[in-house]
């Protein structure tokens, strides 16, 4: 039962497995930011971290620990609990974790300023989830200018009946700029995009690329996103395995204790 896994359960893990590279704490309701701080202190080589749906984690303190401890982080999924995002820690994250490729900021309250900082500092971003973030066309323009490797983007509401809460995303010109500026972009998710925005996106996308839009009922689930997640995890696992083999070869004869990576 996940309720039996608390901060105390992980303090020893963090202290022992200092070469840890991948960590998922998905759906652990009793884990707090103290666990993140422990891993940040003991496992600076972490490259993938998922704390999605960890309802007891305060996003602000967790982000500070992540930014200070994981300079090589490539994949990050946050709790998605705060309606108003902690602006300073998110900006710190952008500056301290420039290798990020996959970032889930669902319901984080990320603003245009935060997205602009992320775009400028994390130019290797490939997948970015900004669902329910109060951003506008300015954020899209920043992504187009700096994130040339962007493949997937989720923004605004994920329900067609809530589109009017995000008027800043109805700028067809900003969407067209995004599509032209990010040559690898293959899907976009934003519920109920207007006809003008949809037409601008389709005009900007070449024949080898496609988009998904809940409003168009082209695809109304996260199938493509999940596929991208699996591919990315497989890439990270292959890299970790290669590194593990090198480490094992170099440290042969040191001790026989198991090491989690």
Strand-helix topology:
Layout: H1 7-16, E1 22-24, H2 33-42, E2 48-50, H3 59-69, E3 75-77, H4 87-96, E4 102-104, H5 112-121, E5 127-131, H6 137-146, E6 152-156, H7 172-181, E7 187-189, H8 195-204, H9 223-250
Parallel strand pairs: 1-2, 2-3, 3-4, 4-5, 5-6, 6-7
Features:
261 residues, disordered C terminus, elongated, alpha/beta, 9 helices, 7 strands
What does this structure look like?
The structure is a single chain. The chain is α/β, with parallel strands linked by helices and 261 residues long. It is 42% helix and 10% strand. It has nine helices and seven strands, in the order H-E-H-E-H-E-H-E-H-E-H-E-H-E-H-H. Helix 3 runs parallel beside helix 4 (87-96) and helix 5 runs parallel beside helix 6 (137-146).
N-to-C terminal Cα separation, in Å? 24 Å
- Biggest sheet, strands in spatial order? 1-2-3-4-5-6-7
Total number of helices:
9
The main pleated sheet reads as: 7 strands, parallel
Low-confidence stretches: 213-227, 246-261
Structural class based on helices, strands and sheet pairing: alpha/beta
Strand content: 5-15%
The shape, in one word, is: elongated
Topology order in helix (H) and strand (E) letters: HEHEHEHEHEHEHEHH
Helical content (DSSP H or I, runs of 4+): 40-55%
Tell me the number of strands: 7
Overall mean confidence score, pLDDT: 76
Rounded to an integer in angstroms, the radius of gyration calculated over CA atoms is 19 Å
């Amino acid at each position: 039962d996940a309720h039996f896994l608390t901060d105390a359960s992980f303090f020893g893990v963090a202290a022992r497995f200092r070469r840890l590279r991948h960590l998922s704490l998905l759906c652990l309701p009793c884990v707090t930011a103290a666990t993140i701080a422990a891993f940040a202190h003991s496992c600076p080589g972490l490259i993938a971290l998922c704390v999605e749906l960890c309802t007891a984690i305060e996003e602000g303190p967790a982000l500070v620990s992540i930014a200070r401890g994981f300079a090589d982080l490539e994949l990050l999924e946050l709790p998605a609990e705060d309606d108003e995002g902690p602006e300073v820690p998110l900006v710190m994250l952008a500056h301290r974790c420039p290798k990020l490729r996959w970032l889930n900021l669902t319901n984080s309250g990320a603003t245009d300023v935060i997205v602009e900082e992320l775009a400028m500092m994390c130019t290797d971003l490939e997948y970015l989830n900004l669902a329910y973030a109060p951003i506008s066309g300015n954020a899209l323009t920043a992504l187009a200018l700096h994130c040339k490797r962007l493949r997937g983007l989720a923004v605004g509401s994920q329900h067609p009946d809530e589109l009017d809460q995000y008027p800043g995303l109805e700028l067809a010109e900003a969407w067209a700029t995004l599509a032209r500026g990010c040559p690898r972009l293959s899907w976009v998710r934003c519920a109920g995009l207007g006809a003008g925005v949809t037409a601008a996106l389709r005009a900007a996308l070449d024949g080898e690329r496609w988009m998904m839009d809940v409003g168009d009922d082209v695809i109304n689930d996260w199938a493509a996103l999940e596929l991208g997640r699996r591919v990315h995890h497989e890439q990270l696992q292959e890299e970790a395995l290669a590194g593990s083999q090198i480490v094992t070869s170099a440290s042969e004869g040191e001790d026989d204790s198991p090491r989690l990576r």
